[in-house]
Design brief:
Length: 295
């Protein structure tokens, strides 16, 4: 299943991308006689497995009954998870990226966080006026679908609802200003995600997906998740030794080599640039950069 959100009445609404268009999930749930679905996508995904079972039933019914669908091209798609629970990120998690950053490969996963103010969807302009060292980071991200505490690597993937593209935007001057990366990682709009949240069963093994990034059409990042130092199951096993993960939590798994930080000379992102992230079958996440925040 491919989960999306779309703009309706000034809010993001949950939908499923089916053959032929987008199913308005809340509207479909209203007419099928079953339990109502939350119209808020984040509330819906926080329900965990029950939400996904219900969505699957609604998709099957819509296909069977020929329910009218919305044309994807007519919709403004938003972040698949507009308000994540926790937002965790793994730093220095690709071998060649650690090398280009001039840092040793970590012996344990390096965790940091971003906040909800960073989350934007595909094509949303990100304001970087006045910032001097803005960098992109193409990443495979995942949404937790089932509560996870002390999970074993062998069943860690059962706790993943699905996967999505993320761009872990980073302002390197702010990131390196103190010993804490947080400030440079959590400026407004600094976590574009989407356009799709593809269910885990449709993605299969996340261990060997292509991870690509393009700046103004020029390939900058072209790697695979097989270069990850800590795989998705290893990340989940590690994190859940220390904290419980809940449905609706978001984890960004790290970026491969090719970021501006590792280039010579370093030409940082500027207004007018466009960066695209494309991980495996997750669609293309396009982000235009502008000087000023949108009204
Ligand atoms: Zn990152």
């Amino acid at each position: 299943m491919t989960f999306v959100t779309f703009r309706s009445d000034d809010a993001w609404r949950p939908g499923l991308l089916l053959t032929g268009g987008v199913l308005d999930l809340a509207a479909a749930a209203k007419t099928d006689g079953g339990a109502p679905l939350p119209t808020d996508p984040s509330e819906l995904l926080a329900l965990g497995p029950a939400a996904w079972d219900r969505m699957r039933d609604l998709a099957d019914a819509a296909t069977r009954d020929g329910r009218p669908l919305l044309a994807e091209g007519d919709l403004t798609l938003g972040p698949p998870l507009p308000r994540p629970g926790k937002i965790l990120c793994i730093g220095l998690n690709y071998r060649r990226h650690a090398a280009e950053s001039g840092m040793a490969e970590p012996a344990e996963p390096v965790l940091f966080s971003k906040f909800g103010n960073t989350v934007v969807g595909p094509d949303a302009p990100v304001a970087i006026g006045g910032r001097t060292q803005v960098d992109y980071e193409s990443e495979l991200a995942l949404v937790i679908g089932r509560t996870a505490k002390n999970v074993a690597e062998t069943d860690a993937l059962d706790h993943v609802a699905g996967y999505l593209n993320a761009n872990d935007l980073s302002e390197r001057e702010l990131q390196m200003r103190s010993g804490q990366w947080l400030l440079g990682k959590t400026l407004d709009g600094f976590l574009p995600i989407g356009p799709y949240l593809v269910s885990a069963d449709a993605v299969g093994d996340p261990g060997d997906l292509p991870v690509r990034g393009r700046l103004n059409g020029e390939t900058r990042q072209d790697s695979r998740t097989s270069d990850l130092i800590f795989s998705v199951p290893e990340i989940l096993a590690y994190v859940t030794r220390f904290m419980t993960l809940e449905p609706g939590d978001l984890i960004c798994t790290g970026t491969p080599e090719g970021v501006i930080l590792g280039r010579d000379p370093k030409v940082w992102l500027k207004p007018g640039d466009v960066y695209e992230v494309e991980v495996g079958p997750l669609g293309i996440l396009r982000t235009p950069f502008v000087a000023d925040p949108p009204n």
